[in-house]
Amino acid sequence: MIVKTNITIVIADDHPMILKGLHDELIESNYNVVGQGINGKQALELIITHNPTIALLDIDMPILNGFEVIKKAKNKNVDTKFIVLSFYKENDYILQAKTLEINGYLLKEDSFSEIENCIENVLEGQICFSKSFAASSLRIVSEELKKIDNLTSSEKTILKLIAQQITTQEIAEQLFISKRTVEKHRSNITIKLEISNDSYYALGTWAYLHKNAILEL
């Protein structure tokens, strides 16, 4: 049985009203809120200092966004489980969350009972996504992630550079390989990602649209 007072929580959001409302709801429900941040820098410092059970983070925050906070915190080997709260429903954000292996992704339109349910599920080792996300979106993102995981380390490196709109010639010079080798990698990546349009620009467009998630690889 979960003892709420034993669950330490850090929350962060740059909207004071949302932050206060979330804080008050958690306190009223007997959770132990050990810190509040209004930007990503504060959130990261609180997480490293307190190593809370749960961190509830807005994605779109000043200085560091929620994803950047999570990545930096994980590099510090904290035991914290992360749940992001956002208005964003786009697939690219879901893909970023899955790439970072974030424990939960809720929308700010969700009720507090859904937040509480997510906390309980995450503490039981489950991955929790808002019920507001279409099942088809989650399935598409999972399929795309599997395709990306099938890439070799060299292909992932090149995909990151393509996502940053670096040309084939520049990639070759940067990685000290031939332009022909880069082109071969591009062809293999296109096939593995099942990009139907095999034109030179199709991979670049796909990579740019998924840039934020690709750079987390």
Automatic annotation (TrEMBL):
Per UniProt, the keywords (alphabetical) are: DNA-binding, Phosphoprotein
> What Pfam families would the database entry show?
GerE, Response_reg
- What species does this protein belong to? Aequorivita sublithincola (strain DSM 14238 / LMG 21431 / ACAM 643 / 9-3)
PANTHER family documented for this protein: HTH-TYPE TRANSCRIPTIONAL REGULATOR YHJB-RELATED, NARL SUBFAMILY
Q: What is this protein called?
A: Response regulator containing a CheY-like receiver domain and an HTH DNA-binding domain
Any GO MF annotation of the entry: DNA binding
SMART domains reported for this sequence: HTH_LUXR (SM00421), REC (SM00448)
Q: Which Gene3D superfamilies match?
A: 3.40.50.2300
**Superkingdom in the source lineage:** Bacteria
Q: Where is the Response regulatory domain?
A: 8-123
